[in-house]
Every structure is written in C-alpha cells, then in structure tokens.
Amino acid sequence: MKQDSPITRRKSRQIMVGNVPVGGDAPIAVQSMTNTNTCDVEATVGQITALQEAGADIVRVSVPSMDAAEAFGKIREQVSLPLVADIHFDYKIALRVAELGVDCLRINPGNIGRDDRVSAVISAARDGNIPIRIGVNAGSLEKSLQRKYGEPTADALVESAMRHIDILDRHDFQDFKVSLKASEVFMTVDAYRKIAQQIEQPLHLGITEAGGLRSGTVKSSIGLGMLLMDGIGDTIRVSLAADPVQEIKVGFDILKSLRLRSRGINFIACPSCSRQNFDVIQTMNDLEARLEDVNDSLDVAIIGCIVNGPGEAKVADLGLTGGSPKNLFYMAGKPNQKLDNATLTDDLERLIREEVARRKEQEESIIARSDN
C-alpha cells in the first residue's frame, strides 16, 4: 500500500563533515546540538553518546570561549561522531578548534572582523579539509539589514547569507553549507526556496526556536516537510526545547514519513475506539519504549479491530488485528498465529525481535555468499 514518492532531490555539491557525506546523493543527515556546558567535558560526552545511540549523524557543540575550545579538544578525543563547533566573533577560537580536530566550523565570516582574521580562519579550514557552515538566523540579522528591511524577512535572510557566501567566494572556498532559520514557518520556507536556486552548496534545514516537544515537533514537521517535499535539504535539525535525543527521534520520523530515510520500526497504529479488542494505546506505548534499540527498518501494523486490521496487516511486514477471543498476528501479509491479550505485548516484542534477527541472519548469509 505504497504510492511512488514524488520527491526529486535538489542537486547539490557534496562536502564531507568528518566521515559523513553531506549533499549530492548522500542520505539526508540528522543533526542535533548539545545543551550542556561545554566546559563540563563528562556531561557533554555523555550527551553526545546518547545522541549517537539515538542515531545522530552529526552533533553541534557551542564553543563560546577559549576555555570551551580546550574542553572541546578533550571531548573530540572521547567521541567518534563528527562534531560541528558553533563559534561567533572570536576567530582565535575557530583557529584553536581547527587544531583540535573539529569536523565543521559553524561560523559566519561576516562577524569575525577584519579580512586578515577571516583569511586566517578560511586558510585553517582549507588546510584541515574542514567545511564551514554559514548559519543565518532571523534573530541575529546584521543591523544594516534590520534597518533596510525593518524586520526579518525571507529576502533579508537570503541577503545576509549571500553576504557571507561572497566572502568565501572571494577566498575561493566552496566547501560550505548554509542554513537560513526563522521561528516563523513561511519565512523560513520562502528563504530556503529562494537560496536553493542561487547556490549549489548543500542546505541545512531547521525551524529555529520551534518550541517545546509537542509544538516544536508540529512546527518543524510542517516547515521541514514542505521543503523536503520540494527536494530541498541535505541535513536537518529539529530544534526543540526538550532533551536533544528527542530532536533525533523526531528528525528520523519526519524523514521516515517521506520515505527519505528509514531507521527503526515504522508503526501503523489505529487511534482506537470502542471496537478495539485490546488496549491499542497502551500496547503502542509499551512497544515503542521496549523497541527503541531496534534500528532496522520494519513496518508493523497494530490495529484494534477487524475493520481495517486485515487490510493493514496484509501490506505490513508484521501485523496484528484485534479479534475475540484472541487477536490474529500476520507475518508477510498472511495469518500466522493467535495472541492472547494477557501476554500480548510480550508476545509482540518477541515476534518483532525474532523477525529482526531473521532478517539480519539472511543479510549476513547473502553477504557471505557474495564474498565467496
């Protein structure tokens, strides 16, 4: 029950952020940012590890001082994920983290100061094969643009980005990506659509300061979804006032819903009604919590009654249809066995994990045969 995807990705120049390709035909990368004090190395490493376990491809770390730069070096030694250093104003911090193994510099050349300082940062990036991310934000536009436009607009965001891009162009530095973020969805979408037609570099998507877990998820899903449907976007960050791990989960859910990337189980579940023959909501909550460690792609339908249950189960990898006195479990679209409500969640978890293990074993067998 799948319609062909209408999405055609925008063609962009590919850069490398550590070992992660960004742009071109590479998968859309999912990114988050630490919210710990960077000088607290242990806490920051712990958060990066949690983000990695959740599936993060890239993590950004704020480096506001030279002390934070030194701490960044210690963090870099303890984690394997590509790290982006977020730096403003002080070019010396950028030079230091370049020495310490940063994978990308999030830095706006226009706020670094004199041209010799900009040249020094660009030279360090070039020598270290370090890409630069230009990050324009509606809340921190240049004063001249604030005077020109009166308030943040999509055109103001694009003009700000092009000013920074012009600086990199003058230094013949092309390994960069760009973000143009606002908390207003339409402004953000308009800005990305406009700049996508003007440059070839990859674009990092986000709705900045989107809100809390619920409201921010909705706003980000709408804004990023509109752009991704246009084929725009090479990396994404869902900005939430919540645990950064939630940003990764929501990011993958957005990509999964558009079939742009798949990670973990895709649950198809009914909202439940009085026809349900088991507690759908509790079953779903329990399964999602128990199976968070499963990264394999799998479609699992959990439907509470026989109205839509058989149809959904037949097109899913695994499916459950509510029935009385027992529920019917489907495998590969065919009835497989009946499950009792008393042990339903335990049985479903076991059957899902068995299917994941079976698929892994099958893949390993195919790889082994091809190697021979």
TrEMBL record:
The pathway to which it is assigned is: Isoprenoid biosynthesis; isopentenyl diphosphate biosynthesis via DXP pathway; isopentenyl diphosphate from 1-deoxy-D-xylulose 5-phosphate: step 5/6
**What domain of life does the UniProt record list for this protein's source?**
Bacteria
Q: What is the catalytic activity of this protein?
A: (2E)-4-hydroxy-3-methylbut-2-enyl diphosphate + oxidized [flavodoxin] + H2O + 2 H(+) = 2-C-methyl-D-erythritol 2,4-cyclic diphosphate + reduced [flavodoxin]
| IspG TIM-barrel domain sequence ranges | 12-251
Q: Where does [4Fe-4S] cluster bind?
A: C270, C273, C305, E312
Keywords assigned by UniProt, alphabetized: 4Fe-4S, Iron, Iron-sulfur, Isoprene biosynthesis, Metal-binding, Oxidoreductase
Record-stated family: Belongs to the IspG family.
Q: Which HAMAP family match?
A: IspG
Descriptive protein name:
4-hydroxy-3-methylbut-2-en-1-yl diphosphate synthase (flavodoxin)
* Organism per entry: Marinobacter maroccanus
